[in-house]
Each structure stands twice: as C-alpha cells, then as structure tokens.
TrEMBL record, chain A:
UniProt GO cellular component terms: plasma membrane
Superkingdom per UniProt: Bacteria
Pfam short name (any one): ABC2_membrane_2
Protein name: ABC transporter permease
Gene Ontology molecular function: any one: ABC-type transporter activity
Chain segments annotated as transmembrane: 20-38, 50-75, 106-130, 136-159, 171-196, 245-266
Keywords from the named record: Membrane, Transmembrane, Transmembrane helix
Organism, scientific name: Paenibacillus agri
C-alpha cells in the first residue's frame, strides 16, 4: 500500500512539473470558455445544441490529452531507465502499475477540475443559465472518460518502446475511437446479415469508452428517445437511478481488466527483460 | 327541492347566484369537485331522466347542486345547466349523457364516467349541440360526436381517472369526432387520456386555444379538409399534433413543447398533408420539432423550432415552401431524405455559418441539409446509435458532395428577427459555488503536490 502511495505521489509530482499538462489545461479551458461565450444567450440544460457541442469538444480533447500524458509517462519510465532501477527494489509490479494509474488519474482529474471550475465561475459571472445537474453530469462524464482512456493509455505505454511509437499509436487509437468509429463500423457491419447489426453495434459500443460514455450522457441528458426504438430498453435502464450503478460497474470492470492486463505485460518484461 | 326557472328574472337571478361558483370551479382543477354524496341526497322520487323528460323544447333547466345518477338520454331541445355544482355519476357502460336532439346545450355540469375502453361520458348524435364548461372525469372517452354537425365544444375540462377500486383500464380520447362537420372546439383542457382531440372525417372544424397535456397525441386528425388548428398548447404528449391525410388545413399559432419521452415523439407530425399552411407555430424541446412525410405543396412560414433534438425532419416531402422559419439551438437543425424540390428561402439556421458580403442580411452561400445520416438510418435504424457522434458528423461531411440532391436553402437569413423565447433555468448559484470550489481545490493540489518541494 505504501508502495502504491509512493509511486502515485511521485507520479503526481512529475505530472504537475510536466509542461504538457499545462498546455492541455490551457487548451481545455480556452475551448470550453469559448463555447460558453458563443452560447451565452442560450440556457445550458438538457440535450440541445450547446450541450451537444460541449459533448463533442470534450470527446475530441480529453481522450487525446489522456492518451498522450498517460502513454508518455509509462514509456518515459522505460526510456529514462527509472523502471530498470525500480526493478531492483523490492517493489511489486502491481503496486507500480496501480500507483502509476492513481497518480496519473489525480493529475488528469485536477486538470478537469480546474477547467470546469473556471467554466462554472465564468458562467456565473456572465450570467449564463447553467443548470446545475447538467454541470455535474458533464463533470462526471469527463472524469469517466479520462479514467477509461487512461487504461488504454497504460496499454499503449506498456507496448511501445519509445515516445515516438507511443505518440503514433495514441493518435491512431484516438482517431479510430472518436472520429473513425462510425465509418469503421458502418463499413464492417455492411457485410454482416441485417439482424446481426444491432447486437454487434452494442457489443462494439462497450469496447469503445468514447461511445460508451457519450451515449450514457446523451441518455442522462434526456436525449435517449433520439436513439430510436431499437435501444428503448437500454435507455429505460440507464434513465433509472440504477443506471448510474450499472454504468459505474461497467467502468470499474473496464479499469480492473486493463490494470490486470497491463500488469501481465510489465511482469513479463520484468522476469524476461 | 327542484327549481324550474322559466321566468326570465328568475333565470337571471340564478345566473348571478351561480356565477361566482362557476368562476371558483373554473379556477380550481377538477379534483375540487364535491365528494360523492351518499345515496340519501339524490332527489327523492325524481331522477335526472324524469326531469329532462318532463321539459318542453326550449326549456332551460337549472340543476341544484346535487349528485345525480346516469345514464341520461336527452331527446328534446333543452338547456341543462349545472352551475358547476351539479354532478352526474354514471357506472353503466352506456354514455352518462346521450344527446339525440338538435340544439341541446349542456353547461357547467360535472360528469363522472366510471367505465373504460370504448364507453364515453357524453355522446352526441345531433346537430348544433353546445357543450360548455363541463368538467368530465372519465375512464374511457370524454365527449364523442357521431354524425353531429356544427357543435360548439368550449371551456370543458376532460381528464382520465381510474375509478376507485378498479385496475387502470383502456383510455379513450378526450374529444372524439367522426363524420361531424363544422364544429368549433375551443379552450378545452384535456389531459392523461389517449388522444386529446381526435377528428376523423370531420371537415371545416375549428380547434382553437386548447390545452393538451400528458396524452398520446394532443390533436390527432385525419380527413378533415378545410379545418383550422390554431393557438393550441401541448406539453408532455407523445406527439403534439398529428395531422394526416388532409388538404387545405391551417395549423397556426400552436405551441408544442417537451415531447421527448417516446422514441416516436414529435412536436407536429404532418403525413400526407397537401396545400395546407403551417405558420407561426413554436415547437420547443421535442425529440423532433416538425416531422413531415409524403406531403406536398404546403407552406411552412414563420415557425420557430427551439432546442429540439432534431429541428425539422423531412421524408419524401417535395414541392413545399419554407420561408422565414427559425431553427435555434437544436442538436441538429434539419434532416431530410428523398425530399428534393422544396423551395427554401430566408430561413434562419443557427448552426449554419453564412457569409453576407453585400450586407443585405441574407447569406450569399446556401445552406444544404445533409441527407447522409437520415439515409443511413432509413436503411437500418440500429445506426441511430450514432446520432451526433463526432465521428458521424465527420463522415457526413465527407459526403457533402451529395448535398445538392437534398433540400437546400438558397438564401438563408443571417439573423432572426422574431425574438424567440429563450427560457430560463432556476439560478441557485450552485454552479458558480462549485466552480469556485473546484478551482480552489485544483490550484491547491497543483501547488501542494507539484510545485512545493517536500
């Protein structure tokens, strides 16, 4: 436990001394504030144009930020030799991985907290009507997105040999998960029988954190009916209070599985390396 | 016990006496009606049916504030007034009141119909009937008109209820017209039933100023050529107004909001509508603001679609005119498929960034509705999962070359003149306080864990 805390503390310290963290912080703040100002005439509540565009902004920016910061942090351990050094200490690989995850999560959540804090403050000063439940939903949505993509980042960081490789893989994963996703699925599902499309689409959504979180927020914003009759039951489930629990357990499952996977990779590297 | 006021003075006196009661009852919703009186308070000896049967044509009967038992059949031309305090309870499957004589007037009577399904509280099978200020609680239908022309149905309140000690039954429609032409339906309040106002085969009907909430369809009409649907307000229905199979209809000044619960919800649904005019309507916060299918040669003018998921959706709608409509803060302004040859001019699309070089308030570049998503989901509705996914917008834009075949606004407005209601949320400062707190905590964390050397 102390090992985990030590690693996490070191990670947080390195994170906040990393200029990348601040450039992403600035980027996130600038864009969210710009959106708020563009839409300052409209109220921010429910599923509408402004919440839709905020959703898109968050979906573009946060996964990219998370993948970069997370993956680079892990490859840096290998590149700079600190992992080789740590390997000689009596510190468990699992403690190391969990510590890294926790530390990075703290850094990213603080960045988001800063961005949303500024947004809430400015919207209060501008007099924009910002519905508080919508605000909290967006906060939770961003946190969930970051925590899920961080697991992907750990995978990328573990599998790539250096930062350049991590950068390339991060960008391509981001592109497929956020931008190319419908294109990819529509083209693949065009070849399967008609009745398979929906189940495959649902299964695919569970493995793409960006879509999973986006759909959860759309439903929670009250926009579930726009998804049409095919997903009526899903929407019903998520709208209930139990929906939050269901969603959180799916996220937790995601995170646990990934940490175990990453642990396997590093443990193998430690014994064979 | 019973009073007949044949004399003019007596009638005026009674009106004066009853008027405050009527006002009080109009101000308070239905549940304020008097509790059921026990059987001892029924007029001894004479039922409501006896009283009506004893009346001469042209009589006005003022009912004392009693509770009566239905069913009742009116076969002579009388005016029956309840002063808002007379209550008729019907537990049989027959209508509580059946009107068979022309020119009958019912005023300010509370009717409670304890049956569901196809049964109705009031059935009209005669012409020129006036139903005014009635408060109807029904398990089934409210008012049913069959082959009854030129009726006047105004200021009634109709509500669905579950009779005590019974399971919820099948709901009927609030006001249901079949083959009844030239009626006037105004200022009624209808809620919790199946369809609020259902019109079938009823031409030249006026539906004005009604308030329709928590229904399946607020207004549901078919084959009602030459009718007018104006100034109605609908909220929380599956669909506000469903208009189908009509020509020369006016849908104007209506407001339909918050229809999002159902996966088929719309503000206004137009199906097979021809040469009609749809103007000055406000559709706000619906799943789809205005949905138009298989409709042609209509004019849509000065409508405002505000904060809907989809502002307007067109499917196989061709040859319609769209002028000066405003599309504001919708998740997506418009979707169209197989809808070429519509004339769109001078509409305002707030998601569209126009360019106005000659500063005439009209964009010099056209606005085209992208048909890609709509076409995709019409092939397989499972793809609706991609609604407004960032990747979906990316993909649609790549097929921009296809836009020309869809609907195009040649001269979109740069700015909307009509001031659309913005609405407001309750400001309790929670967001601002949370903002302060988050900012404070994150800055402290950064300084404490990152900057300070420990």
């Amino acid at each position: 436990m102390t090992d985990i805390l030590q690693v996490a503390r070191r990670e947080v310290k390195m994170g906040f001394r990393n200029p990348w963290a601040y450039s992403f912080l600035a980027l996130f703040c600038t864009f969210s504030l710009s959106l708020l100002i563009i839409n300052s005439q409209n109220i921010v509540q429910g599923y509408s144009a402004i919440t839709g565009s905020m959703l898109s902004l968050v979906l573009y920016l946060l996964p990219l930020m998370t993948l970069f910061l997370g993956a680079f942090s892990l490859t840096a351990e290998k590149e700079e030799g600190s992992w080789q050094l740590l390997s000689t200490y009596p510190i468990g690989t699992l403690s190391f991985i969990i510590g890294k995850y926790t530390g990075l999560a703290v850094v990213l959540l603080v960045i988001i907290g800063f961005g949303y804090g500024l947004m809430g403050l400015i919207s209060g000063l501008l007099g924009t009507s910002f519905d508080s439940s919508t605000y909290f939903l967006f906060l939770a949505f961003s946190a969930g997105l970051v925590l899920l993509f961080l697991t992907l980042a750990l995978f990328i960081g573990s599998l790539s040999r250096n930062r350049w490789q991590a950068l390339t893989i991060s960008v391509s994963i981001w592109f497929f998960a956020v931008i190319g996703w419908p294109t990819l699925l529509i083209s693949i599902l065009g070849m399967v029988p008609y009745l398979w499309v929906k189940p495959l689409l649902v299964a695919a959504t569970f493995i793409n954190p960006a879509e999973l979180v986006r759909l959860f927020v759309v439903v929670k914003l009250g926009g579930g009916s726009v998804l049409g009759p095919e997903y009526f039951q899903w929407v019903e489930w998520i709208q209930r209070p139990n929906g939050n629990l269901l969603f959180m357990s799916v996220c937790l499952l995601w995170i646990l599985c990934s940490i175990v996977g990453v642990y396997k990779i590093w443990e193998r590297g430690r014994t064979h390396g | 016990m019973m009073k007949y006021s044949h004399s003019r003075a007596g009638r005026q006196f009674l009106v004066l006496l009853l008027f405050p009661l009527l006002v009080v009852d109009l101000l308070f919703p239905l549940y304020s009606q008097p509790a059921y009186a026990d059987s001892t308070s029924y007029p001894p000896g004479r039922s409501l049916q006896d009283i009506i049967d004893a009346a001469e044509p042209g009589d006005t009967i003022d009912l004392p504030p009693e509770t009566y038992q239905g069913p009742v059949v009116i076969r002579t031309r009388v005016t029956l007034r309840g002063g808002g305090r007379a209550t008729l309870i019907n537990t049989t499957v027959d209508p509580a009141i059946t009107i068979l004589a022309d020119g009958v007037t019912l005023q300010s009577i509370n009717v409670q119909h304890d049956q569901d399904g196809k049964t109705t509280a009031i059935q009209v099978k005669a012409n020129e009937v006036t139903l005014e200020g009635l408060a109807i609680h029904t398990g089934g239908y409210g008012i049913m008109l069959r082959d009854a022309d030129r009726a006047k149905i105004i200021h009634n309140r109709i509500r669905w209820f579950i009779p005590q000690g019974q399971p919820a039954g099948e709901r009927g429609n609030g006001i249901d017209l079949y083959n009844s032409h030239g009626s006037q339906i105004g200022n009624n309040e209808i809620s919790y039933l199946r369809d609020g106002i259902y019109l079938e085969n009823s031409r030249n009907t006026t539906v004005d100023g009604n308030k329709l909430t928590y229904l399946r369809y607020g207004i549901h009409c078919m084959y009602i050529n030459g009718s007018k649907i104006t100034n109605n307000v609908g909220e929380y229905n599956t669909t506000g107004a469903m208009v189908m199979g009509v020509t020369n209809v006016v849908v104007s000044g209506n407001s339909f909001a918050k229809q999002i619960r159902n996966v088929h919800s719309q503000g206004i649904l137009l199906y097979d509508v021809r040469t009609s005019s749809i103007t000055n309507n406000l559709v706000e916060g619906n799943r789809v603001g205005i949905y138009m299918e298989k409709s042609a040669e209509n004019e849509l003018r000065d409508n405002v679609a505000l904060r809907n998921f989809i502002g307007i959706q067109l499917s196989q709608a061709a040859g319609n005119q769209f002028h000066r409509n405003g599309f504001i803060a919708n998740v997506i302004d418009a979707e169209a498929v197989d809808s070429a040859e519509n004339v769109m001019n001078g509409n305002y699309w707030d998601s569209f960034q126009g360019m106005d070089v000659d500063r005439d308030g009209i964009s010099d570049i056209p606005y085209a509705i992208n048909p890609f998503y709509q076409r995709l989901i019409s092939r397989n509705s499972a793809y609706q999962l991609f609604f407004q996914s960032p990747g979906m917008n990316f993909l649609s834009d790549m097929f921009a070359g296809d836009k020309a075949s869809g609907s195009v606004d040649q001269a979109p407005l740069m700015k909307l003149d009509t001031k659309a209601p913005i609405g407001a949320v309750r400001k309790d400062g929670t967001v601002m306080v949370t903002g302060w707190l988050l900012l404070f905590v994150s800055v402290i964390t950064i300084i404490y864990l990152g900057v300070l050397r420990s």
